[in-house]
Specification:
The chain has 142 residues and is an alpha+beta fold. It is built from 3 helices and 9 strands. Strands 1, 2, 3, 4, 5, 6 and 9 form a 7-stranded antiparallel β-sheet that branches. It has a two-stranded antiparallel ribbon with strand order 7-8. The longest helix has 21 residues. The radius of gyration is 25 Å and the shape is elongated.
Length: 142
């Protein structure tokens, strides 16, 4: 009784599962080992606000607040530069490299609630914080 039902169930579900596994996980994105993309890829790892971000021309990246108005050009310090098959890393090689970006908008991050509590004393303290952030659009990698 259950054998025939599970067989039909398996025949219907297995092709769907296999089809889902074959599909790319991120549609529209090419895989890293694609040969036609390897010679055209230009990106940089930049340091902004104590963190490092992977950027390419046209990307909009949200970093810690930068000094400047909307529309101003800012320069970000590159840590590593990849131009096709050529990888540049090290302070001496990156001295002539630069990454320029344009400030798109200033925004606030998500609210973080801080609660402090001490047992048996009635001490309760509540504090909130929202980080000041800046969205920048990468205009050039040189």
């Amino acid at each position: 009784m259950f054998g025939s039902a599970s067989c039909t169930f398996t025949k219907e579900i297995v092709p769907l599962v296999v089809e889902r596994l074959v599909e790319p996980r991120f549609p529209g994105r090419r895989s890293e080992d694609s040969t036609e993309m390897s010679s055209q890829v230009v990106y940089a790892i930049v340091r902004a606000g104590g963190r490092q971000e992977k950027v390419s021309v046209g990307d909009v990246v949200v970093v810690d607040k930068l000094a400047g108005e909307i529309g101003d050009e800012v320069s970000l310090a590159p840590v590593m530069l990849v131009d096709g098959d050529k990888v540049t890393a090290g302070a001496d090689d990156l001295a002539e490299s630069s990454v320029t970006a344009e400030i798109v908008r200033n925004e606030k991050g998500p609210k973080i609630n801080i609660l402090k509590f001490k047992n048996k004393t009635g001490f309760r303290k509540r504090q909130g914080h929202r980080a000041q952030l800046t969205a920048v659009k990468i205009t050039a990698i040189e």
